User: Fold this.
Amino acid sequence: MKKHLLLFSILLLTVLVVNAQSRKYISQFSHLQHYYNPGLAAYEGSMIRGFVRNQWLGWEGAPKTYFISAELDFGQLAGETDPGLLGKHAVSSSLHHDTNGAFMESELIVGYASRVRLSKTTNLRLGIGINYNTVRLDGNRLTTDQALDPTVRSYFGGFANMHILDFNLGMALTHKNYYISYAVHNVNEGKLNKGDVFMDRKAPSGIFQGGYRNWISDNIALATNVMWRTQADLPENVEFNFKVLLMDRMWIGAGHRVAYANNLQVGFVLGELKMGYIYEIPMLRSYLLPYSTHELMLTYSLFKDGTGMIW
Assistant:
């Protein structure tokens, strides 16, 4: 066990120091469109969202993720109810907190989105997000035989804090039944920073998202989503999911993160409240720890009249 903890800590340090940042996985990515792309703020209407991810349950020091956000569409605030007309102006705010071994990271994003009407049913959405990121390294939690290594020596047994200010840009083509979007995170590569600078830079990340949903009968609807992320210092990340919505009350589905994990999904619609749960199983060839991951998502619509069906 001690050998495993040693290897785990060294790998975590290598990811953050050498590669500049680690990638955060969220299997229910389709419920957090605005987090990945500021142009999709309030695409589903004005919402409050909460999210918890407990990765590799049962493993000491395993990653834990907490997320809360709010989105407000000014059209809904003024009484607009037609989903096709919403999104002319929208704002969003999200707080993402992640603990991963010796590292604790918090990320606050404040975003603005504007819609350009292309046709009666199709819109172009543009958005910008201001990203404030803090990373804390607890050297007391590092367990390494390489205390003399210059990479870790100055942080071993102490604390380090780094603060980064950056911004994200996004655009999306949207319809009530589909969306196609692309965003770039960390456009300025983390050059505005202060504190203990233990990351040389933050490589920009490109994020493509797409989805389609529609009713196939009065009681059954289908929704499918895909996300593709690229970053110079990390492997490409491709994942997708498929859901079946039953009687607008419950959904079941499955997802896959290419070469990494599979998941099963279930969710419930209770009026303005939606609750989703995912059980994720790592794939053997991904070389991840053989422990399951659990995700719980809650969303609350601030107005009764929204876009309706879930993504």
Helices lie at 2-18, 33-36, 74-77, 150-153. The chain has one domain: 2-301. Confidence is low (pLDDT under 50) at residues 1-21.
